[in-house]
Amino acid sequence: MGRPKKAMPEYRFHVSGQAVVTLSGKTFYLGQHNSPESRARYLSLLQTYNENGLRMPDDVPTQQKETVLTVECVTAEFREYAEKKYTNNKSHLNRMLNLCNLLDDEYGNTPAAEFGPRKLSAIRDLFVASGNSRSYSNCQTRNIAYIFKHAVSRELVPATVGEC
User: Fold this and answer.
1) What Rg do the C-alpha atoms of the chain give, in angstroms?
2) Sheet of 12-13: strands edge to edge?
3) Coil, strand or helix at 98
4) DSSP letter at 14?
5) Is 108 within 8 Å of 70 (Cβ atoms)?
6) Fewest C-beta in 10 Å: which of 43, 45, 74, 107?
7) Within 10 Å of residue 7's Cβ, how many Cβ atoms?
8) For the chain, which residues make up each domain, given as ranges?
9) Using alpha carbons only, what angle is made at residue 80 by residues 119 and 132, rounded to the nearest 5 degrees?
């Protein structure tokens, strides 16, 4: 017998500093954690969820319009994902976490929607300038593109960002 559903979905803290709630399998970002606006959005989403028979309509946005998602938020989300996915491959996990740290250092406060091919090329040039081989630099560049494709799949950034 499966575990019974909780009566009320939890208002949780996300490592990006935002509040989140998961309803019908979708994660909704509510804004700055413990702010009155995020609490109000949480209650509004719960009301919609309860009115629709414990289901969320497809047209409800997963993020607030005024929330600017930074590269740091994207890497924080990816870190959570990577720690679950790469539990058996510690070397690959460390490589991906180091890439997240590099992205945070170089572009952490940049809006994620502004991260495009030029910024990706600048990071690739940084790898080459560090004396790394071309194959290593290209592999790391593909891994960064993978981080942003993950963000697109989680609907954190527009699909145009994942096309870098």
Assistant:
1) 18
2) 12-13, 18-23, 26-32
3) helix
4) -
5) yes
6) 43
7) 5
8) 1-67, 71-163
9) 40
Distance in angstroms (rounded) separating the CA atoms of residues 112 and 164: 12
> Per residue of the chain (164 residues), what is the pLDDT tens digit?
677 766 788 999 988 788 999 988 889 988 888 888 888 888 888 888 888 888 888 888 887 766 678 898 899 889 989 999 998 999 999 999 999 999 999 998 899 889 989 999 999 999 999 999 999 999 999 999 999 999 998 888 888 776 65
In angstroms, how far is CA 96 from the centroid of its own chain? 14
Amino acid symbol at 95: R
90-107 vs 117-129: helix crossing angle, rounded to 10: 110
Instruction: Tell me the C-alpha distance between 2 and 117, whole Å.
Output: 46
Amino acid at 6: K
At residue 85, φ and ψ (nearest 5 deg) are: -75, -40
Distance CA 23, CA 28 (A): 8
Q: Are 103 and 144 in contact (CB under 8 A)?
A: yes
Give the tokens for residue 53: 């028979």
| pTM given for the model | 0.64
- The dihedral through the CA atoms of 100, 110, 107, 32 has a sign that is negative
